[in-house]
Design goal:
- The complex is a heterodimer of chains A (about 210) and B (about 280).
- Chain A is an all-alpha fold.
- Chain A has a domain at about 130-205.
- Chain A is about 80% helix and about 0% strand.
- Chain A starts with 8 loop residues before the first helix and ends in a 5-residue tail after the last helix.
- In chain B, about 55% of the residues lie in helices and about 10% in strands.
- Chain B has 2 domains: about 40-235, MTH777-like (Rossmann fold), CATH 3.40.50; about 240-278.
- Chain B has a 6-stranded parallel beta sheet with strand order 3-2-1-4-5-6, sandwiched between helices.
- In chain B, helix 1 runs antiparallel to helix 10 (about 245-275) and helix 3 packs parallel to helix 9.
- In chain B, helix 7 (about 175-180) links the parallel strand 4 (about 160-165) and strand 5.
- The chains are: A mainly alpha (about 210), B alpha/beta (about 280).
């Protein structure tokens, strides 16, 4: 039971609407596609409305409008942001070099942060962690050696286009199979997550809606 | 497809739902428990015990709708546990989906009359990785006026004793390790994430970049069993998914897989036999 709804009239109505939507979505499993399509439209509409509301109440008003109204001369960052938004909105009528400026800044900044963080926070520490060193127990040391070997074999599986001998081909093929095995395991995790989501919906119908306690 | 097969294809999902519903209604089965060994839960408890009295905990709340059902009971127990320890919680989201779920959880906390002076909503920060970078420099306290807001406004992330990240979205514990931990000095990062993120996050736990991680239903159940929430039981999930329906679902999944394999195998054998006869 998700416990998102209270006992008031609005909460009861919300529970009934949610239960109806859940039944319609589950009805898609047994072939009822038209009503299922409506729920998809409903989800898309709700998501769009929520995003618009979020943008207005938590971004545009508090971070743009309010600073500009409070101190028009001091909010240089807000003016710069407003200018970039205006350029984006007017991009169909502007030269390509000018229109590309805001999106270039957005993509460049995101890529810089993501790449820098990935190298410093993930790549380097994980390479260090993948190096097999002597651990406190023999089992831990062997696990480290196995992890290093698997990392090497899988990385070797990505080497394409270079002439290789039979042994190198065997190592690369092993690397690809190990990677496939890992992907299979990952799909198993995905299955478990989705199964619990389905159980949550069943629990919602039986518990929150029908009041069948365990 | 024959009529019989078409009918079976429609009835099978319905039968699965009925089976899962029946397993959900059945009370706890003795000997069948999710808790398990609980090494991860002990790691969490140790990390929480190491916090100073009345710690300030920054909660990065970015689960996704598709997996939140899995971590929700653990998240609610964790919040109750932290509040029972006297923690002060500052919530922030950097994804719209996480923000939607956070609004619902904060509303639930308010209805359950959780101490409002110990909970601060820092809102939604747009910009994905850039938002996390900005968090490392300045916390968006906004117009908050309480003592927690004042402390965070003055000390920024330096005033925070630990960060708890509720993961599920693209921007989750891994992004916090990459963007926040690399810009702060010794801020302990603790994470709760759905099972699907376990392969991605386990290396960070092994390397010490995450201090503690709960990323399986068993680890979550073990944590819930050992958590001390005091008088805050009203904040807990009423009926988290039990082990029996999960087990039933997994058995059905394995049977479906096995059926597909056996089907492929028998058709291959039939082809071979037909080839031999011809």
């Amino acid at each position: 039971m998700n416990g998102f709804f209270g006992a008031g009239a609005a909460d009861v109505a919300a529970t009934w609407v949610a239960a109806f939507a859940t039944l319609v979505v589950l009805g898609g499993l047994i072939g009822e596609r038209r009503a299922f399509g409506w729920t998809q439209h409903l989800l898309a509409g709700l998501a769009t409305g929520f995003l618009a509301l979020l943008a207005i109440t938590e971004l545009i008003v508090p971070r743009l409008v309010t600073p500009l109204l409070a101190d028009p001369g001091g909010a240089r960052g807000a003016w710069l942001g407003l200018g970039l938004v205006a350029i984006t909105a007017a991009s169909p009528w502007l030269p390509r070099a000018v229109a590309a400026l805001p999106i270039s800044i957005a993509i460049g900044t995101l890529a810089a942060f993501a790449l820098g963080g990935a190298v410093i926070g993930t790549l380097l520490p994980q390479i260090i962690a993948a190096v097999a060193v002597r651990e406190a127990s023999l089992a831990a040391t062997l696990a480290g050696v196995a992890a290093t070997m698997i990392s090497g074999v899988v990385l070797f599986g990505f080497v394409h286009g270079t002439p290789r001998g039979r042994a190198a081909n065997a190592v690369a093929a092993t690397g690809r199979w190990v990677m496939l095995g890992a992907l299979g395991g990952w799909l198993g995790y995905l299955l478990l997550s989705r199964l619990i989501l389905l159980l949550d919906r069943v629990g919602f119908l039986l518990g929150d809606w029908l009041g069948t306690g365990r | 497809m024959s009529d019989r097969r078409r009918l079976a294809a429609r009835i099978a999902p319905l039968a699965l739902l009925v089976l899962l519903g029946a397993a959900w209604v059945v009370p706890a089965v003795p000997g069948l428990e999710l808790g398990g060994r609980g090494d991860d839960a002990r790691g969490w408890a140790t990390a929480l015990d190491a916090l100073p009295p009345e710690p300030i905990v920054l909660v990065g709340f970015d689960p996704d709708l598709g997996t939140y059902a899995e971590v929700r009971p653990t998240v609610r127990t964790l919040i109750a546990d932290l509040l029972n320890r006297g923690s002060r919680l500052a919530f922030v989201s950097v994804t719209p989906e996480g923000r939607a779920l956070l609004i619902a959880e904060l509303d639930r906390l308010a209805r359950a009359e959780a101490n409002p002076t110990r909970v601060l909503d820092l809102g939604y920060l747009p910009g994905a990785e850039a938002a996390l970078v900005s968090l490392a420099h300045e916390l968006p306290v906004g117009e908050g006026t309480g003592s927690l807001a004042r402390q965070l406004a003055a000390g920024g992330i330096g005033a925070v004793d630990a960060a708890v990240i509720i993961g599920g979205n693209d921007i989750g514990p891994r992004s916090w390790v990459e963007q926040v931990a690399t810009r702060t000095d010794e801020l302990p990062l603790l994470a709760v994430a759905p099972t699907i993120l376990l392969p991605e996050l386990q290396p960070y736990l092994e390397s010490g970049q995450l201090v503690a991680l709960l990323a399986t239903p068993a680890a979550g159940a073990a944590f819930r069993d050992g958590a001390d929430v005091g008088a805050l039981e009203r904040l807990l999930e009423i009926a988290p998914p039990g082990p029996l329906p999960i087990l039933v679902g997994m058995i059905v999944a394995i049977l479906v897989l096995a059926q597909a394999w056996v089907g492929q195998l028998t058709s291959a054998v039939r082809r071979m036999m037909a080839r031999d006869q011809s």
